[in-house]
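User: For documentation purposes, I need each entry recorded in a consistent format: the amino acid sequence on its own, followed directly by the corresponding structure tokens. There are two entries in this batch. Please keep commentary to a minimum and don't merge the entries.

Assistant: Recorded as requested. Entry 1:
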Amino acid sequence: MSTIGAITPIVIASDRAPRLPLPTPMKLNSTVALTLILLVSMVAAGLVSASWGSSLGREALKGITQPDTRPSNNKAGNRAGTTRREELAVLPESDIIANVKVRMNGGTGKDLKASPVATTKAATTSAAKTELPLSVTSQDVMLEVKSARQQGELMVLAVSLQNGGKQSIRFVYDALNVTDEQGRTLKASMEGLPAELPAASRAFPGTVSISANLLDGVQKVSLSLTDYPDKRLQLQLSNIPLVR
């Protein structure tokens, strides 16, 4: 009986390595993409806005320099300012008129000089001499303030309006502007004057009433009136003295 040898299994090695699965490409989420786009847009808009604002600021500050705050320069500036103020002087009106008359008559006149102290005294004297009545004329229409007296709790100004022109003039007296020396507006009412001044009219009398409570410490007032609706007239009286 023949003996059967063991059969050795033959393994055939393959030259190819086993195939691995390829990675799938990652898909970009639409929400993430939108967020990135918005961020980029915001950064770009910020850069553009900053550049534009910087350019506008430079244009606005052209010609503006920082003030010199050094003590030495301040002293020099103060001395220069004092010198300029001391050089300002206003000549008296009477001297000017006299000099003009001399020159018109063939004379040579004289050099007029005035010191600041003398000018201040002259201005004070002129202001103190302001008396009523006062009048102003604009395009043949005359506004006159004849008197100012306190009556009870009211300061009453006696006024008149006269039209010497060839056309009638209309007024809205609610637009009357009354101010004190500080430029503050005072509430006032005008009575007795017609709403329309006829051409070549007589002087129409009226009154301007101001509450005395508004006039504490006020020595003078100013009136301003214009026509309606053209506003061609400018009737303005300043430094009207108040008598209490």
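Entry 2:
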Amino acid sequence: MSMKDLYRAEFNQGSWDSLVTFFEEAYLNVDSTWVECAEQRGFRRISAKFF
């Protein structure tokens, strides 16, 4: 199997959706102090709806 075939097999929309869901759930467990600090430094949460 070529790298191109491997990429296409693994990185389909379902895989990306699962990855986004994983990070969305992980975000809910981040300490609110860390979230506030990140926001003060210019980082912001990107909604899965963005993708």
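Summary note for entry 2:
The mean pLDDT is 81.
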